[in-house]
Design goal:
By secondary structure, the chain is mainly α. The radius of gyration is 19 Å and the shape is extended.
Length: 109
């Protein structure tokens, strides 16, 4: 990330810290409620942006480890994105199901 981009991320995190530090508990609770209400939609959009970038980097020929380093996520996250496992842990196929589907041994690097 560029210095400018890092600063933008810091501004967002600082704004969230300011909400947590609000002295009026009712105003703070209202602000938190508003954030929590919006967060699921925002999380979905942010994950889509990240996943799109991961797939694009893979199409460019980057290794899974390089993608993980560039995007600053784990290798497992990159693998999950590329396999289409974008849900929660509970929605992942169990080992037997994965073996039946031919997933075992399907590792890059």
């Amino acid at each position: 990330m560029t210095e400018e981009q890092e600063e933008e991320v810091r501004r967002v995190l600082d704004a969230l810290d300011q909400v947590e530090a609000m002295e009026d508990p009712v105003a703070r609770a209202r602000a938190v409620a508003q954030l929590l209400k919006d967060q699921p939609k925002r999380n979905k959009r942010l994950k889509e942006l990240r996943d799109e970038t991961v797939r694009g980097l893979r199409e460019e020929g980057l290794s899974l480890r390089r993608i993980a380093a560039e995007v600053q996520v784990s290798l497992g996250t990159v693998q999950d994105i590329l396999r289409g496992h974008t849900g929660t842990w509970s929605s992942r196929p169990r080992k037997k199901e994965a073996a039946d589907a031919g997933d075992e041994g399907d590792r890059d690097e």
